[in-house]
Task: structure prediction
Amino acid sequence: MSDRYQTILLFGAPGAGKGTQGVLLGSIPGFFHMSTGDMFRTLDHHSEIGKLFNQYSSKGELVPDEVTIRMWREYVHAQTVLSLYKSREDLLCLDGIPRTVAQTKAMQEHIEVRGIVHLVATDPEEMVARLQKRAIEQKRADDAKIDVIRNRLDVYERETRPVLDQFDPSLIHEVNAIGTPAEVLGSVLRVLAPIQASMRSTVSS
Ligand code: ADP
Result:
C-alpha cells in the first residue's frame, strides 16, 4: 500500500448532501470524515484566517487555493497526531476538497483516490430549497441570500466540476442525491463498502 492517504471523495454541488452523508459515514468504523467547510467554520472569526474565510464565504466564493491547501495539511496532521484519524486503518472521506483543479494537483502527492462518490441531484430548485432550509437550521450566512446561493452554484460549475476530469472515469460513481438520508446512504455504501473491504485486506496482508 502506498504512503499516501487512502481516500474517497464526496463530490457534488452545494446542497447535494455531501455533509449529511459525510457525517453518517464518519460514524461507521473505518471511515474518517473530513469537511473543509467545517474546518473553516471552526476558525476563530477574529483571527486573520477566520476573517479571510468570512470575506470569501459570505460572497459564495472559494478561499484561495494556497491558504486552503496549507490549512488542510495542518488539519490532517493535527487529526493524525491526536490519533483521531488513523491513516493506516481508516478510509479518509474528503468532503469539500479538492474543489479546484489546482487543489487536485497540489493534493496528488498526499492522497490516493480510491473512489469518488458523485452525488447528483437533477432538480436545481431542490438544491436551492435544501440550502435555504439549512440557512435557518444552522445559521449559515452563505446559505441565507439567494444571490449568494446562485453564485455558489455558478462557482461549482466553473471551478469545481472540472475536478472530475482529472480522474480516471472508472473511479467515479454517480449516486442519486434525491431521497432520504438513509436511502442515499444505502447507495453510497454500496459503492464504498467494497472499497473499504479491499483496503482492509491490503492492511492485514
Ligand atoms: P457547501 O458544501 O454547501 O458548498 P461547504 O461547507 O463545503 O459548503 O463550504 C463552505 C465555504 O467554505 C465555501 O463556500 C468556501 O468559501 C469555503 N471552502 C470550503 N472548502 C473549500 C475549498 N476546498 N477551497 C476553497 N474554499 C473552500
Summary: Residues 181-204 form the longest helix (24 residues). The pocket of adenosine-5'-diphosphate is lined by residues 14, 18, 36-37, 40, 56-57, 62-63, 68, 96-97, 99, 103, 142, 152 (CB under 6 Å).
